[in-house]
UniProtKB/TrEMBL annotation:
Gene3D superfamilies: P-loop containing nucleotide triphosphate hydrolases. GO terms for molecular function: ATP binding; ATP hydrolysis activity. Keywords: ATP-binding, Nucleotide-binding. This is ABC transporter domain-containing protein. The keyword Cell membrane does not apply. The keyword Protease does not apply. SMART domains: AAA (SM00382). Residues 83-329 form the ABC transporter domain.
Length: 330
């Protein structure tokens, strides 16, 4: 198994997060296995000193009403379910405070689902629980991904089985440049698939159209991952990773936050460009504007750790005009 040993400065004020995709991982525990990108499993050793080390051990990617299961209707009977979440409950690992209080959701191949909801309703927690974030403990319910019990899988297995997550706040990886990072991750995926690795020149030929897809300048390839990137540039970089690595299911947490209107269009175009009838997107957003560019099959409203309503784009239009009071009594 390929292993890359990296040194990086650590900061006492910032949470240490070593995946562009896994933010807000508080890494005070030692030797924590982090799986940044569902595609990119890392082993992390942190000594709480000014320097830490990161071992990239492998990277791969094969990569309503609450009583009803949201996202299911008669039209879905012929479509293959990709993700089936039933009565999912989860608590914060440290405090045992319950955040998810029975989430039900079915996502079929080729569908785009948007999750909306007031601040603090549990949207990000839901997505982090899906990728196996160690801050949370699942206390009940089930999650089946591509026919397999997702909750039985380690975070890296989830990534290997094709789950990708773009976190709300993409993190920096000091000392690792973007193109090397992407190349390593992509090659790991190829190894997993039994394909020969691509050398730097071949990889660049593969990467170049993806850069165009996200309308990103090649200068960003030689910079360290997300280091000094603006908020919008980080989001664009996340989508570049998704475009390079691919996913059966991409979870995009507020991918529109911090984007100017041109960047929003570029990101939406890139997401639309990677959609196939076989993969799906679960996106968390507060705004209609994203949904006008990436048109969802369903919109779900989360409240108090549950999906309390499911519908089409009209829900988002109502929200935009009237706010949450129009669809929720509380
Ligand atoms: N690790 C944690 N420690 C303490 N509280 C947490 C933790 N994770 C989530 N919470 C709390 O759980 C609730 C749900 O948080 P979550 O981030 O899932 O909300 P959200 O719907 O994504 O909100 P927003 O729209 O503001 O991003 C919030 O009250 C939050 O403070």
């Amino acid at each position: 198994m390929a292993s890359l040993h990296l040194n990086f400065p650590s900061s006492s004020t910032q949470p240490l997060v070593f995946s562009p995709l896994l933010s807000n991982f508080r890494t005070s525990s030692f030797n924590l296995r982090l799986f940044t990108h569902p595609a990119i499993p890392f082993r992390f050793h942190h000594s709480n000193h000014r320097r830490g080390s990161l071992h990239l051990i492998s990277a791969a990617f094969s990569a309503a009403n609450q009583t009803e299961i949201a996202g299911t209707d008669s039209r879905d009977s012929e479509k293959k379910p990709l993700l089936e979440v039933k009565d999912l409950t989860a608590v914060i690992a440290e405090s045992k405070q319950e955040i998810l209080k029975g989430v039900n959701l079915v996502v079929h191949e080729g569908e785009i689902h948007a999750v909306m909801g007031k601040n603090g309703s549990g949207k990000s927690t839901f997505s982090k629980v899906l990728v196996g974030h160690p801050d949370y403990e699942v206390t009940g319910g089930s999650v089946v991904f591509k026919g397999e019990n997702l909750l039985d899988m380690e975070p890296e297995e989830r990534s290997l089985s094709g789950l990708f997550m773009s976190f709300q706040s993409p993190v920096e990886i000091p000392g690792v440049n973007n193109i090397d990072f992407l190349n390593m991750a992509y090659n790991a995926r190829r190894r997993k698939l039994g394909l020969p690795e691509l050398g730097p020149i071949e990889f660049y030929a593969y990467l170049f159209p993806k850069l165009e897809l996200v309308n990103m300048k090649s200068d960003f390839l030689n910079r360290n991952v997300n280091e000094g990137f603006s908020g919008g540039e980080r989001k664009r970089n996340e989508i570049l990773q998704l475009a390079v690595l691919g996913a059966d299911m991409a979870i995009l947490d507020e991918i529109d936050s911090g984007l100017d209107i041109d960047a929003l269009k570029d990101v939406a175009k890139a997401v639309n460009g990677i959609l196939t009838p076989k993969n799906s997107v679960l996106m968390i957003t507060h705004y209609l504007r994203l949904l006008e560019f990436i048109q969802p099959t369903y919109i779900h409203i989360m409240e108090g750790g549950r999906i309390v309503k499911t519908g089409d784009i009209s829900i988002a239009k109502t929200l935009e005009k009237e706010g949450y009071k129009a669809i929720s009594p509380s």
